[in-house]
Amino acid sequence: MKLVIGSRGSKLALAQTYYIKNLLEKIDEDLEVEIKVVKTRGDVDQRASISQLGLGVFTKELDIKMLEHEIDIAVHSLKDVPTVWNEDLTIAATPQRESYYDVIVYNRNVDIEGSVVVGTSSVRRRAFLSLKYPKMKVVPLRGNIDTRLKKLMEGKYQGIVVAEAGLRRLKIDLDSLNLNYRKLDIPPAPAQGVIGVAARKGDREIIKLLKKINDSRTYLESTAERWALRTYGGGCQAPFGALARYYNESRELHLICSVVDLEKRRILSEEGKISCDIEDIKGAKRLAKYVSNRLKECIES
Fold first, then answer.
1. Which whole number is the average pLDDT over 186-210?
2. Which end of the chain, N or C, is less packed with Cβ atoms under 10 Å?
3. Does residue 244 belong to any structural domain of this protein?
4. What pTM did the predictor assign?
5. pLDDT band at 109 (very low <50, low <70, confident <90, very high)
6. Same domain as 200, residue 223
7. Catalytic residue ranges
């Protein structure tokens, strides 16, 4: 069986794609895998902000290639995939999640507790940072992790905010770069740290293969987080964070969602839990709708 995997061309995207390739080759030694790099609008346009470019900025071109049968599957950072998506495509697998934390990376001579200039392109990060860390001056910063680290070391920023998962997947040694980092107390983007492997819904043989690399806990948790965002609205660019955790011993799924009320300058949070099996995707969606609707009621009151 031959499988063509579509990927963005960044180091992180390719690291994630080769990770998926290796997982698949371990379960099927006869599998012939080809990786095809596809440029997305988000890769080409480095000037506009992510919010200006709109939904699917890092996924749309890969989706089109799948629908046109130029690639068989696509590897995404699941947080970049719109929650309202093409009805002919599906997330067929989510391997075990990496860290969901946001971290600030900064030069060792910087007093991170003081007034520092911090770069990020995320609406969510900017909104939560402005309230959780009021001394930080948050300014726009686009580019892949290497580009952002370079600008940091050139002194253009005193700190940058990135996903810890990206640092780990690229095996970046911050000590060798004379940089420090610290986890931030802000809620993650829905499905942050999760790799989503997309396929066409009609490709049953491919989906059956992908299910063998799926992690059920990751799939359940990321589904709850993404459905919470879908219910709340605003897409990937809403100042909205969500974290779901499934506990095997108690067989409970917990979900907490937070949003920044930009008008009143406050953070609102709601949480809930249900008893469910680890495969109970419908239960995860029900919980997500319940928590997110409560959050909407709070912000509207």
1. 97
2. C
3. yes
4. 0.92
5. confident
6. no
7. 80
Domain membership flag for residue 188: no
Q: Domain range for residue 129? A: 102-183
Residue 263's pLDDT is 85
Instruction: Give the CATH number for residue 225.
Output: 3.30.160.40
Work out how many domains the chain is built from and give that number. Answer: 3
Between CA 195 and CA 57 the distance in angstroms is: 16
Note whether 14 and 80 are same-domain residues. yes
Q: Is residue 288 a part of any domain in this protein?
A: yes
78 domain residue, yes or no: yes
Instruction: Give the dihedral sign, CA 238/100/227/286.
Output: negative
pLDDT, tens digit (0-9, with 9 covering 90-100), for 185-196: 999 999 999 999
C-alpha distances out from residue 158 to 123, 132, 165, Å: 19, 18, 21
